[in-house]
Amino acid sequence: xxxxxxxxxxxxxxxxxxWLRAPRVSELVTQWPFLETWEPAExxxxxxxxxxxxxxxRESAGRRQDAALHELVEAAFAQPRLRALSPGQSMHWVTxxxxxxxxxxxxxxxxxxxxxxxxxxxxxxxxxxDVYGATEAVAVVVGGLPDDAVPDPSCM
Length: 156
What we know:
Elements: E1 2-4, H1 9-20, H2 25-31, E2 35-37, H3 39-46, H4 49-63, H5 67-77, H6 80-83, E3 86-90, E4 93-97, E5 110-115, E6 118-122, E7 128-132, H7 134-143
Antiparallel strand pairs: 1-2, 3-4, 5-6, 6-7
C-alpha cells in the first residue's frame, strides 16, 4: 500500500518500525516522505475500495479507443450484483471478485470483447460462452454467478 526507497538505513528502519505498528497508510507516508501511496490503497483503508475500483475502470475504459470495452464496463456497472463486486481487468478480460484486496477471487465469471459486437464469457470451470452484445454478455455473467458471490466485508 506504500512504496519507496531511501539510502538512509535509519529512515528505512524507522518506516518499518512505524509500519509494524499498523498505522494508516496516509500516516505512514506523512511521517516518512520517501514513501508514496496511491488512491486505491487509501480507498481500501476508508472502506471505499470497490467504488474507487469501479470509477477507475470506467474512466480507463472511457479513455480508450475501444467502444466494446466501454460498452461492456458500463453494462456491468448497471447491474447491482456486479457493481457490489470488485472489478478488474486482466489480459482483456473484465473480472469480478468478492475481494478488493489480494488475493483476488478467480471463481467468478469473466468477460471480454472478441470483436464485431461479440463477447466471450469464461466460467470458473473453464467453459466458454460467446454472445452478441455487451448487455447480453453481462446477463450471462450475472446468471453464472454463484449464490455466494457477495463481497467479502473483510477485504473491502
